Every structure is written in structure tokens, then in C-alpha cells.
Task: inverse folding
């Protein structure tokens, strides 16, 4: 390992890069076998070598806030504790000089103590690495290092407690669930005035609250993201199987496990809460199953996606079964995907929009499999007017998603009178609307019952 000193930052990062290259080439075990045992043990505890890239602070000087946005158990607390410890000790890999006064801000004083300081990944439980641990004084709410650096604990419920004290660094944990997030964070910023480069670290599972939106939009914020699965080696297998398996793909899972910022659009036709309420794990016996296709007008790198959605009907309710949409696919590719889904589900109709290039789409499908009945549909109204009756069926609890379809649900909950916020074409939504319209809003005879 490189000796402490002003050259540790570049040499340590170069060592990390070299280790990663050896691991990728399958030569790391042979290299480690040539090192003295004490050095191998030291490398096993060295954070710069063991951390994932998202757990290391960004290089460069053009940032004031490092936002570590991650799922539950993704290693956010360890990231924060290692960063604070490195600042306090003056580790040249993280700071040009020791930071003598640091703020630790949690939702409550108990959160600071039980998670940030005394927790399994907190400051008092970091590897010793041959150094004295900092000393925690609960009555003073202060953590002290041997070099004189101190970290002071604050509760976000008491923003005024941050008036007066000044700091060279701050760690804010789970800021998205603070009760008074903006008041506490703003008051902290007035105290970040020591040293050449005072900085914040915010570690949190995201929620669509104003503070998090503000930080993510700030050009002086650098964002690292991590999923629960990224830290799977350090999590209980039962947790991964039961919790991750159960919630993967749902709104709650995407927020709490994947660290995604999930927000509803106020004027959207669909709301995530309603989708979650109506979600089911298994479809009942279905009287009809259709696959709907919203084909792109062109193919190529800039073409729209091809929306391919399957749905079925049981009684007065519809069940969305699959989203097999493809981006920038050739006609043969999306036709093959649509036909494969049709046969896999035993569908009785393939519904294809024929407004823009649709006649070509129907022809491609007929060429690929002439036995499949293709039902052409033509849009005579705008997308919003076509989607509105389908969204009303959802609002009445008559449409259920069988499992989770994150990309499709993102489009639904971002679709308003002016389309998607991004201006992109809502191809998955279009295919869904055609499928549900064909099943629920047109009168036709009921064929046989089929079981998935």
C-alpha cells in the first residue's frame, strides 16, 4: 500500500485501478499471492480498494453537495461513515487537509446515534486499520478523533440548533424523510463556512420531496446511485429472496430498492397509487386475450419504439399480461416479438394500429405468420382522447396489472393533455390503450375460457 503523504491520492487511485484491471483479467489471486500477508490484510480493510465506484466521492473541485441516492441496504451509511472518517483524519485520498469540525444531521438525535454513529455501518464500527477509533460522548453528542477533529450530532427536527455552529463538512442521512427538510438543510448551509472547500454529503433513499428535487437539479450537486442488489454480498439471502423478490418492479420497490425518484405528474391520466392498488400476482381464467401493436412509422436509430402489450379479459375486468415493447427495432424484430407473445399467451387477436405505416406493419405480420388473425385499427381521435376512457376503467378498478411493468407504468403516470413530459411518443401507452379498448370498449362475442 502507498504510504500516507501528499501523493496518496493519485497513487491509491492508481492502485485501485490496477487491482480492478487484474480482477477483470482473472489475475488478481495470483498477484495477491505475491504480497506479504500483512499487506493483503490491509488491502482487505482499505476502503479505497474495497468500495464500489458509487461509494467514492467524485474527483474534481466543482461540487458542493455529493448526493448518494440508493435503495435500502445499498451501502449508503457505510459510504457516509467512511467519508466523514477520512475527512476528520485528513486522508489525502479524500481531502487536502483534515476537516476539524463536521456536522452529522439525521432525522432525530436517535437516528444519528443508532445509525450514523453506533450502527453496524456507522462511524464507531468501521475497521480500525491500526488506528484509534473516535470517542463518542453521548451527553455532548460529539464524536472526537485523536487529532482534535470533532463531529457534532444534530436533529433535523431542530433546525435552529444549526444556528451559530460552523463546519467544514456535513453528512446528512436520509434527508428525504426529514419532517422539516428544507429548513434544516438551509440552516446547515449557513454554517458550512470553514476551510477551503466545505461540502455536504447527502445519503438517502429518494422520495419526490422538494429538497431532493432541488438538490438533483442543482449543477453543483454530483449524484451517485446504487441499488439494493449492488450490495447483495453483504445482505441476508432471505431478505433478497423475500423482500427484493416481492417488491421488485413495483413503485415501492423501485423507490426503496432501486433508489429511483418516482413521482406522479399532477395532470396525468393515471396515478401510481391506483396502479398499485389494482395490481395482482396472477390472472384468473381469461375469456379473451389480445396482443396490441403500435408500430413505428420508420425504423432506425431515431425511430420511435414499437409498443407491444398483451391484455386479457375476465368478466367485466381486464388484466394487463405483458409489455414486450422494443426500441429502435427492425420490422422483422418487432413483428417476431409480437407473434412470439401472441403464441406464448394463446391469444385470439393481434390488434395493429394502421395510421402511420400500419398497413406495412400488418403486411409484415402476415408474411411472418399468415395464420395469425390481424385486426387493424385506425385512430380517428388524438392520443389523449383515446386514452381517457381507458384511464377511467383504471379509476373504477376494472383494469389490473399482472405483476409490474415499470417502463409502461412510467408512461401512464407521465401522460397528460400535452403528452409525455419528455415530448417522446407514448408507444407503450398507445399499445395498452388499443388492447384495453379492443377488450372492454367494443362489443363482441365472448369466445371460450382459457387458462394461462
Result:
Amino acid at each position: 500500500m502507498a504510504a500516507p503523504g501528499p501523493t496518496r491520492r493519485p497513487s491509491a487511485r492508481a492502485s485501485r485501478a490496477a487491482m480492478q484491471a487484474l480482477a477483470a483479467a482473472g489475475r488478481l489471486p495470483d498477484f495477491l499471492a505475491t504480497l506479504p500477508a500483512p499487506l493483503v490484510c490491509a488491502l482487505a480493510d482499505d476502503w479505497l480498494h474495497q468500495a464500489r465506484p458509487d461509494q467514492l466521492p467524485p474527483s474534481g473541485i466543482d461540487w458542493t453537495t455529493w448526493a448518494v441516492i440508493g435503495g435500502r441496504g445499498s451501502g449508503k451509511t457505510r459510504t457516509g461513515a467512511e467519508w466523514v472518517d477520512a475527512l476528520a483524519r485528513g486522508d489525502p485520498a479524500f481531502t487536502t487537509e483534515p476537516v476539524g469540525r463536521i456536522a452529522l444531521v439525521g432525522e432525530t438525535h436517535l437516528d444519528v446515534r443508532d445509525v450514523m454513529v453506533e450502527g453496524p455501518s456507522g462511524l464507531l464500527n468501521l475497521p480500525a486499520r491500526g488506528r484509534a477509533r473516535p470517542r463518542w460522548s453521548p451527553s455532548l453528542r460529539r464524536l472526537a478523533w485523536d487529532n482534535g477533529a470533532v463531529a457534532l450530532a444534530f436533529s433535523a427536527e431542530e433546525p435552529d440548533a444549526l444556528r451559530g455552529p460552523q463546519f467544514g463538512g456535513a453528512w446528512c442521512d436520509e434527508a428525504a424523510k426529514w419532517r422539516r427538510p428544507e429548513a434544516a438543510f438551509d440552516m446547515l448551509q449557513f454554517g458550512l463556512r470553514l476551510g477551503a472547500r466545505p461540502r455536504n454529503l447527502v445519503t438517502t433513499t429518494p422520495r419526490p420531496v422538494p429538497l431532493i428535487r432541488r438538490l438533483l437539479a442543482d449543477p453543483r450537486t454530483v449524484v451517485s446511485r446504487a441499488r439494493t442488489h449492488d450490495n447483495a454480498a453483504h445482505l441476508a439471502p432471505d431478505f433478497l429472496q423475500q423482500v427484493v423478490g416481492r417488491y421488485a418492479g413495483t413503485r415501492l420497490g423501485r423507490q426503496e430498492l432501486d433508489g429511483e425518484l418516482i413521482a406522479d405528474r399532477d395532470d396525468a391520466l393515471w396515478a401510481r397509487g391506483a396502479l398499485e392498488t389494482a395490481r395482482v400476482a396472477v390472472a384468473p381464467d381469461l375469456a379473451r386475450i389480445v396482443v396490441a401493436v403500435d408500430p413505428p412509422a420508420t425504423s432506425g436509430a431515431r425511430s420511435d419504439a414499437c409498443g407491444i402489450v398483451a391484455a386479457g379479459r375476465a368478466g367485466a375486468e381486464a388484466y394487463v399480461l405483458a409489455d414486450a415493447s422494443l426500441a429502435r427495432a427492425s420490422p422483422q424484430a418487432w413483428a417476431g416479438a409480437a407473434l412470439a407473445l401472441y403464441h406464448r399467451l394463446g391469444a385470439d387477436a393481434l390488434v395493429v394500429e394502421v395510421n402511420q405505416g400500419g398497413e406495412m406493419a400488418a403486411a409484415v405480420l402476415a408474411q411472418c405468420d399468415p395464420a395469425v388473425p390481424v385486426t387493424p385499427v385506425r385512430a380517428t381521435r388524438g392520443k389523449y382522447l383515446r386514452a381517457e376512457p381507458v384511464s377511467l376503467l383504471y379509476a373504477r378498478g376494472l383494469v389490473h396489472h399482472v405483476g409490474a411493468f415499470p417502463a409502461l407504468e412510467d408512461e401512464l403516470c407521465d401522460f397528460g393533455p400535452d403528452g409525455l413530459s419528455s415530448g417522446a411518443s407514448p408507444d407503450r401507452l398507445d399499445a395498452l390503450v388499443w388492447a384495453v379498448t379492443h377488450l372492454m370498449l367494443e362489443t363482441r362475442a365472448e369466445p371460450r375460457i382459457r387458462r394461462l
